[in-house]
Amino acid sequence: MEIVEENAGSYLSAGEMPLPALYCTMAMLFFLSGCFWVFLLKQSRHPVFKIHYLMAALVFIKSISLAFHGINYHFIEIKGVHLATWAVLFYVAHLLKGALLFITLILIGTGWTFIKHVLAPRDKRLFMAIIPLQVLANMAEIILEESEEGAREYRAWQDVFILVDLLCCGFILFPVVWSIRHLEEASRTDGKAAVNLKKLKLFRHFYVMIVCYIYFTRIIVYLLRLTVPFQYGWLHEMFREMATYVFFVLTGYKFRPAAHNPYFTLPSDDEEDEDEV
User: Which residue numbers delimit the GOST seven transmembrane domain (predicted)?
Assistant: First the structure.
């Protein structure tokens, strides 16, 4: 017996048919945004740090990952099976994107290159914990993609993915909390309360952004996938990618190179004396 499941010239289900166009469109949007970010860095007359170029690399890796994902779905649409080459390229880009995203968030949260130039031992221990967990979460997600929902291991890997993903999301909130506490102490002791309070406010905004991003992409999107009719199953992916894009744009806007960005290094006493003169 041979059974062929096909929808009006497409092997994708009704809820997945818009996905190739969606992923390719978002890939182009991320790529253009990355080019614009690099242009701003090259034209900037203000200090540009290594973290700014790391943010650009993250945007381009995200764009490549979405492009490979869209191409993979395109071949599933026209052939009924995905080609191994594009699937492997997508999985490699997906692993790099996941690891680089959490590395960038932790580096921003700890204030690396902005308010300090060396990672503390506590920050290094956080990296040693979060990166293997994130790689494991991405591997679990890849195994889920390749498994049938009726398989016994599907449910086990799904539980592993949810648990590890929530642990990773919880870990990236710690450096922001540590930075907030550090700036609260500094604002009371070093006499530069005004600048430190501006930094503290920016850190709190970043903390709220991360919480909203995690809450929306992990909980709201999951509930949306469970509640919408089957033909609108692509909506949860659209909202996930749009939320990610908005989060990237807001993060870039808040931590862009600027003359009076309160996130930058505090001026030294010599610089203050020169300003007074």
Answer: 18-262
